[in-house]
Amino acid sequence: MQGFVFPFLRENLVLSLHLSSINYGHLQRLSGRTAD
Question: Could you tell me the pTM of the whole model?
Fold first, then answer.
């Protein structure tokens, strides 16, 4: 069971980190646009 769960959790963590970094960059672009 662990052999299946841990790779899944790791992939999920990488995916969520990737999505959060995309959202962070998007927020920075929006704040930069409003600050202009």
Answer: 0.53
